[in-house]
Structures are given as structure tokens and as C-alpha cells.
Amino acid sequence: MAATIDDHIGQKQHSWLSWLTGRQTFWVMLAVIVACVFLSFATDSFATSNNLFNVTRNFTFVGIIALGMTVVIISGGIDLSVGSVLCLCSMVLAVTMHAGFSIYVGIGASIGTALLIGLVNGVLIAYVGMPPFVVTLGMLSIARSLAMVTSNNTVVFEFGPDHAKLLALGGGAFFFGIANPVLYMLALALITGFVLRWTRFGRHVYAIGGNEHAAVLTGVPVRQIKVAVYMISSLSAGIAGIVETGWLGAVTTNLGTGMELQVIAAAVIGGANLAGGVGTAFGALVGAALIEIIRNSLGLLGINAFWQGAFIGSFIIIAVLFDRIKNLRQRE
């Protein structure tokens, strides 16, 4: 009997270890830890409180949007418009507050803009049947153009009577010295993780990404769910835009340019499968953290910053290759 119990415990431990090492997020998290340890010894400035504060704060904007992007990718879609949506929502907030309205009106207008863009994307994709790539690529250009029109292509750095409130919202650190954007990101990650793991909506998102035809046959409201995921993606970009506006203290029409690549990279590196059906909120944050550590380390090690794109692109390829190898092993 003792031998049987020991064998059973051993099998459970082996199964748990196999499950853990088979998760892409585990290896990315391990890479983050190894990189942090290496940089702490290789440089004198990485492990300083100021640098760690900047690293954690900087990756939060990509991390927040990557949460929404992960939901979209799990459903089998893609959203290329998030960088431009961030810019437009930031500009709507800035222009509204500059006109003398309160921060609450500005945030409401910004969130409303994000949800409207997500609704348009979702309807065109789910009900009209247009490819996500085409719709969101078009919205990338439209949103950026609207941001220029809204501000007359000028920099907005005065936010009316609630100027100080906005700067405190994005640039403050009210809780144990932790930057406010980090707290927002963690709260959103918990909400996203809970929704994906424990709600019917989350199960439907995974079902659509795994096999949309089967999801339709089982009664999943596919079209409504698709609209919802694109609204979530735009909402995450809008929230990131609001927070980043408070952090920067100014908004330009170049804000968020090229950010969609970093966001998609964070989601994919963190374990989201571009074919759909796979992904986690925690993975999105880990992927965003790795990208920021790469960016930060290049400067500290004296490496040309132009190499950043090469490193990020390589990690995307490695992540997809890892998933491909895992699928081949499962088939065998």
C-alpha cells in the first residue's frame, strides 16, 4: 500500500512538473528572472530603486493594453488599432480638460470614445464579416487622423482646472511608493484573469478561439462575444491613454505610434496563440515585462537601442516556434 501511495504521489508530482515546464509563460517568467539577476550583477544601475521604479512604471502601459489584446487573440482575432486608439483617447481627454471641463468629464469622453471605436471594429468584424486585420488596420489610420483633427496637430500640455488631479492620477505613487500605473495594471490583470478563468464570458471567448464553428453549434453567442472583445481591447487602450497622459503631462499626435507591435509581442511572448484559444492575463504581463527589461538593458549595457526591434522580433518567433513544437509533441 505504501508503495502504491508513493507511486501515486510521484506521478502527481511528475504530472505537475510536466504541466509547468510545458507552459510558455513559465519559461518567459524564468527568462525575466534570469535577466534581472544577470543585469543586477552586470551593471551598477539596474537594481537601483529609481531604475526599478521606472522599469515597472514603463511596462505598465504596454501591459494594460496587452490584457485587452490577449482577450482578442484568445478569441482568434487581432487588433492593430490600439496604438492609435490610445493616442485618440489621450487627445480627447486632453482637449476636453483644456477646454475647462472637469477630469471626470474628460475621462468619460475618453472612455466613451474607446468603447465606440471598439464597437465599430466589433460590428464590422462580427456582423459584416470583414477580416480583423483589415478593419483594425483601417481604424489605426482613422483614429490617428482623428487625433490630429481633434488637436489641430498640436501638443496639449495644459489640462484646465483639474490639471494637478490628472498628473497625480498618472504620475503619483499613493500606495507604499508603488507607481499608480502599476496598481491600475495589477487591478486590471486580476479582473481580466478572473473573467477569463471563472465566468461564462471567458469560457465563450476560449471556445470561439478554439473552434468557432463548434461554438456556434453549442449555442455560444459568437457575434456578441466578438463585439465585446474588441470593445474590451479598445477600452484597455483608452485606459492606458488616460494614465499615460497623466504620467507624461502632455499629449502629442505621435503618442502610441508603433505600440501595436509591442502589445501583440507581449501577448504572444506571454503565451497567447495567434490561432486562438490560448492565452492568460498573467502571460500578457510577463511578456510586457520581458520587453521592457530588454529595452532597459540595452541602454545599461551600452548596446545600440536600434537592436530592440531585433530582440523583440526574435522573441516573437521563438514564442511561436515553442508553441509549434509543443503541438507537434502532443500529436505524437
Order of helices and strands: HHHHHHHHHHHHHH
Q: Domains counted in the coordinates: how many?
A: 1
Radius of gyration, CA atoms, in whole angstroms: 21 Å
Structural class: mainly alpha
**What share of the residues lie within helices?**
over 70%
| Number of contiguous helices | 14
- Give the name of the CATH architecture: Orthogonal Bundle
- Spans of at least 5 consecutive residues whose pLDDT stays below 50 are none
What is the overall silhouette? globular
How many beta-strand elements?
Answer: 0
| Biggest beta sheet attributes | none
What separation lies between the terminal Cα atoms? 34 Å
Mean pLDDT: 89
CATH class: Mainly Alpha
CATH fold topology:
ABC transporter involved in vitamin B12 uptake, BtuC
Strand content: under 5%
Description:
The protein is built from 14 helices and no strands. The longest helix is centred in the last third of the chain and has 27 residues, at 222-248. It has a single domain, classed as ABC transporter involved in vitamin B12 uptake, BtuC (Orthogonal Bundle). The mean pLDDT is 89. The chain is mainly alpha-helical and 332 residues long. Helix 4 (82-98) runs parallel beside helix 6 (132-151).
How is the secondary structure organized here?
Layout: H1 2-21, H2 24-42, H3 49-74, H4 82-98, H5 103-126, H6 132-151, H7 163-171, H8 180-198, H9 200-210, H10 212-217, H11 222-248, H12 259-269, H13 281-300, H14 308-331
Helix pairs in contact: 2-13, 3-8, 3-9, 3-11, 3-12, 3-13, 4-5, 4-6, 4-11, 5-6, 5-11, 7-11, 8-9, 9-11, 12-13, 12-14
